[in-house]
Amino acid sequence: MLFESFSAAQSTLLWSVFGVAFLMGAVVNKTNFCTMGAVSDMVNMGDYSRFRAWLLAIAVAIVGMLILELTGMANPDGSFPPYRGSQLIWAENLLGGFLFGIGMTLASGCGNKTLIRIGGGNIKSIFVFLIIGVIAYFMTTPFPGSDQTLFSILFYDWIRPLAIALDTKQDLGSIISSDNPMGARIVLGGIIAFLLLVYIVKSKGFRTNPEHWFAGIAVGLAVLAGWYLSSSMIVDIPSEGEQYTLVEYYENWDMISDSDEGKPAQGAALSPQSFTFVNPMGQTVGYASSGLNASLLTFGIVSVLGVILGSLVWSLISKSFRIEWFFNFKDFITHVIGAVLMGFGGVLAMGCTIGQGITGLSTLAVGSLIAFIAIIFGSALTMKIQYYQMLYEDASFFAALITALVELRLLPKGMRKLEAL
């Protein structure tokens, strides 16, 4: 899409993203598309229907990304965050995903679900949002009067040295075939998407449930829309005979523009990207604390606002809006701990259940796969521990942990400490 000015292109991008996020918020609320709920259904009831809806969204995103990239309508190589970066931060993906999985279980939902619940009237989720936002903000932004962030203070010195510097980008296509990464992506992505679809349609319960199909396809298409919109805004400068993407325009601002009016605070946030919600919560906190400084408005911020509003509108239409508060002080503390873990984990993992579990996986990035698995494991383990602590009130945490690991088939059956009732 060609525009005569940077401001017109940016405005169109932000409003378009807001519209897609609004629709996604309404759809997710209506269909109860919930990644934590999907894990809970698997672990507690053996029901894989919502998990299949999540996998369907991933399959749609993978196939769609192959088409967008092949036709030049998306450029995930230069994305924000850098999913395909040549530095594989596997330890951060693993630890961050694990912490996020624990946190979303304790806080009653992932980043996206937190926004959905806010739109539905859940006051608890507002607290969760604020805690995640503050932590995410200071994980990436220095403290006032300092050059230190929470990440540099708590994590950088010991976890970043574990990163692996690859000779290629970290997506599966580049790793398998550095000479022809796009061809490898088509083959691998096609195989992965096909296998996912085969697994999905094996379930009669899923096949006959149009709501699960609708949820998975809609969320996958929303992610693709984000990739397309953020990659396709082009500023045309006839006098120079040049065309610039938003990030290119930003990088050449001093040579192209006569003034700094309308210049965003950061150029990275103009790069190709799609939906993720932990870092954008931090951006939203920064935007609010700045007095709504327009230069700080980003894809991420409008996506956060769009999902909340979309969920709110659907809640009002469906008459499901209701105010929810903490049951007791223990419930409050549990949600606070969960929010803290989500804030740290989401930034470390470089994304959430949507950001890494769908948006990141659409690029076939290895780091996204690691984070995705770690999130599921962290959530499933926490649910199992909670289950046995509920059954055996006097049981130790260690006994519940060992039993949970046995049930997840990570330890031999002979090590079981507690019996299922």
Structure description:
This protein has 421 residues and is mainly alpha-helical. The chain has one domain. The chain contains 19 helices and five strands. The strands form two sheets. A three-stranded mixed β-sheet has the order 1-4-5. Strands 2-3 form a two-stranded antiparallel sheet.
Show unreliable segments.
none
Strands side by side in the biggest sheet: 1-4-5
Query: How many structural domains does the protein architecture include?
Result: 1
Q: List SSEs in N-to-C order.
A: EHHHEHHHHEHHHHEEHHHHHHHH
What's a concise summary of this model?
The chain has 421 residues and is mainly alpha-helical. Helix content is 64%, strand content 3%. The chain has one domain (2-415).
Q: Topology of this structure?
A:
Layout (H helix, E strand, L loop, with lengths): L1 E2 L2 H26 L3 H11 L3 H22 L16 E2 L1 H17 L4 H9 L3 H18 L9 H10 L4 E2 L6 H5 L4 H21 L2 H4 L2 H23 L1 E4 L4 E4 H6 L1 H4 L21 H12 L9 H19 L11 H20 L6 H6 L5 H26 L5 H11 L14
Parallel strand pairs: 1-4
Antiparallel strand pairs: 2-3, 4-5
Pick out its properties.
single chain; 421 residues; mainly alpha; three-stranded mixed β-sheet; two-stranded antiparallel sheet; 5 strands; globular
